[in-house]
Amino acid sequence: MLYEEIRTAVCETARKMSRDGLVRLTSGNVSARIPGTDLFCITPSGMDYATLTPEDITVCRLDGTNNIEGKRRPSTETPMHRMTYNRRPDVNAVVHTHSPYASAFAINGMDLPIACTELAALAGGDIKCAPYAKATTEEFAETALATLGDEGIGVLLQNHGVMVTGPDLGMAYAIAIAVEEAAQIYVLAKSIGQPIHMPIAEQKRMFAEFRAGYGQPKSL
């Protein structure tokens, strides 16, 4: 099986996404770029995550031509993943969820403000909401990417869900969790008072410091 390690990582992330309540049934999708190639791996369309195996993960071309390996049809949101990798060379993983609290912001057409230090460190700015477009289409992808911009980490998809990006699958998944948790906390905070938004300069400082020095040195 070609690119077994990355296909396994995509499969495990998708199953974790389901276990953690970021999606239900067959909604959402996960992908990862294959370094040094013009390829990426993505979850299949309409499959139960509990039964997903690495062999079910499809290997697709970034130019949108025929897939090179995989027995399943790729996610119907493949255009959004493919176009993200083509537009954003800094992105190596995409996680698309329908997590309930963040999706509630999307259904209201609202941005998710930065009021939590954790999301500030991971995202560095508000999670903007893209205007409505028909899911699975290239217009949907174009709208999402226009809102995401050249440096955005995540975007809410109006009446739909959430897409986050990362330099690797681990970081993209951490951001997906942080976005959902921040949305839940914001809703709770709003129910008892008026949430205090973090200053933009502080958001950017925390983001830069997190990227520069969080965690253990890679040499360990």
Structural class: alpha+beta
The CATH superfamily is identified as Class II aldolase/adducin N-terminal domain
Oligomer: single chain
Query: How many helices in DSSP terms?
Result: 7
Q: Can you count the beta strands?
A: 7
- CATH fold label: L-fuculose-1-phosphate Aldolase
CA-based shape: globular
Average pLDDT over all residues: 93
Which percent band covers the strand fraction? 5-15%
Order of helices and strands: HEEEHEHHEHEEHH
Count of separate structural domains:
1
Roughly what percent helix? 40-55%
Explain the overall architecture.
This protein has 220 residues and is of the alpha+beta class. It has one domain (4-213): Class II aldolase/adducin N-terminal domain (L-fuculose-1-phosphate Aldolase). Helices cover 41% and strands 15% of the residues. It contains 7 helices and 7 strands. The protein has helices at 4-19, 78-87, 100-107, 117-123, 138-148, 169-192, 200-213, and strands at residues 29-34, 39-42, 58-61, 93-97, 128-130, 154-157, 161-166. A 7-stranded mixed sheet has the order 3-2-1-4-7-6-5, with helices on both faces. It starts with a helix and ends in a 7-residue tail after the last helix. The mean pLDDT is 93.
Put the structure in a nutshell.
This protein is an alpha+beta fold and 220 residues long. It has helices at residues 4-19, 78-87, 100-107, 117-123, 138-148, 169-192, 200-213, and strands spanning 29-34, 39-42, 58-61, 93-97, 128-130, 154-157, 161-166.
